[in-house]
Amino acid sequence: MKEIVYIAVGELRYWLRSHLALGGSLVFLMLISITSILTTGHINAENNARVQQQKNAEDTFLTQPDRHPHRMVHYGHYVFRSPPPLATFDPGLDAITGQSIFLEGHRQNTAMFAESGASADLGGLSWLSPALVYQIFAPLIIILLGHGAIAREREAALLTPILSLGVSGYSLVLGKALALLIFIIIIMIPLMVTCTIAVFKGADPIAAGLLFCVYLLYLIVWGIMTLCVSSILHKRSTVLAVLSSCWFIFNLALPSLAVNFVTYTTPLSGKIETDLTLLADLHKVGDGHNINDPAFGQLREQLLKKYNAQSLADLPVNFRGIVAIEGERKLTNVLNSYAARRMAGETQQSQQLANYGWLTPTLAITFISRSIAGTDLANYHRFQKEAEALRFSFVQKLNHAHAEQLSYSDDIQRNKDEASGLKARINASNWKSLGSYHFKKSILSDRVKSAFYSFNILLTWFFEMCIMLFLCARGINS
Description:
This protein is mainly α. 71% of the residues lie in helices and 2% in strands.
């Protein structure tokens, strides 16, 4: 054990004397610090803005005067998606997906207003986040430091004298690995600070700890890979060239190719095609604004028979409101089926992309990071589902008020004159049935479950690299 520590200390001293290694490390720490500060500030500002916008939207809706209930159905309401606390480290899909949805009757609107102001923070590097810095640039720094760990000894003809002193290949490799592990832990300090701040902002401590551990495991995989190549090849220049090629393939080429391939092999239906099919299906359920639509003929007869009424005016409920209730229910069923189909297609694409983590650990850590941070596709779909549930709830409450609080005769004469229009209004206290909305972070167990598959992939990479390093150490002995 003493010789392993001695080798590690010697390697660390060498790195401290290396201006290239020290300079590269300082550049990385500066980059991660700047991106952490800017991303944290940006996400916090976004969160405060969206919370305030949500409050303004609710205040605007609730302070509306007495109106016809169907006017309020079309007046609509906004809901906003607040970023989770760990988005300060990994914003995930937050920057490219909509942050708000306009809720109104008879429609399921898509999320709107994806961020555009973030580009002013870093200019051409506006896509950078602390997570991406760790995923892409941290492995490059590890390669820069560790590529000559063993090849340097062989190139300087020192490997044989070291082994002749009784130092085994295993001790040599473990000493170098310990030095690299110490360096990895040092560059993980900014992540630790970011996660700690996120915990004080409301993040789950367990989630923050898991995020730290998986990134530590990811960087260890790169560290072991670096030592393996350094053990196999004889020249540092060759080692650096091979590892740089691996970095380019794993971090840039393969993820890009995987996205393009998944998009090609699992295409989603286009908007025009989907809208045309949707309109045809919606036409079949009837027009909720037209009580004479044949789709509601059976409903009319059932109500007249149930209440033994001769005409719609004799019913104890407003038939126009009843049609609105039934029309919205049928329409929502159709809209939900299309929304579920679209989400299933997006989820299938995401799952297929996750499979490419077997080819590159970068994709594996990307999916794990977004899942644990709560900024992945599943979290975005949850926002859409919650928004739709709220939309259907408040529209149907207004439709029920339409049916129960407004008479049929007053309703059909509301456009006759001003007095008739005033009689066809209901009390503004009905708007309070909408309730408040706040997008909460997802349950930790759901996030861990979502990350489990990619975590197994990353763990497999770790064990494979450990086996390879063991074989390389045995090769040094022989």
